[in-house]
């Protein structure tokens, strides 16, 4: 006996004659079997441990630290540029005092 997948057909071959019968419905699992599978999947789902709390906290902490470091560097650069502009009287954007 052979089956044709996807068509729900069983082909029986004996000698020269071929007989095709149609199966009425696919066999359904027993309710006890379904309940056991559901219980097993619930146990598996509840026993898995998510690893996001510590690792995500550490990752976010590192990101915050790097962001703070970048901001401090940018502030230092801005202050340095401003000091350079304040010291240079001929810098762009400054008024030029001339005396005749």
Features:
100 residues; alpha+beta; three-stranded antiparallel sheet; 2 helices; elongated
Give an account of the 3D structure.
52% of the residues lie in helices and 15% in strands. The protein is an alpha+beta fold and 100 residues long. It has a three-stranded antiparallel beta sheet, with no helix packed on it. Strand 2 and strand 3 (17-22) form a beta hairpin. The protein has two helices and three strands.
The dominant shape is elongated
Structural class: alpha+beta
Spatially, the strands of the biggest sheet line up as: 1-2-3
Radius of gyration: 40 Å
Fraction of residues in β-strands: 15-25%
In short:
With about 100 residues, the protein is α+β, with helices and mostly antiparallel strands. The protein is built from 2 helices and 3 strands, in the order βββαα. It starts with a strand and ends in a 13-residue tail after the last helix.
Secondary-structure map:
Elements: E1 2-4, E2 9-14, E3 17-22, H1 31-47, H2 53-87
Antiparallel strand pairs: 1-2, 2-3
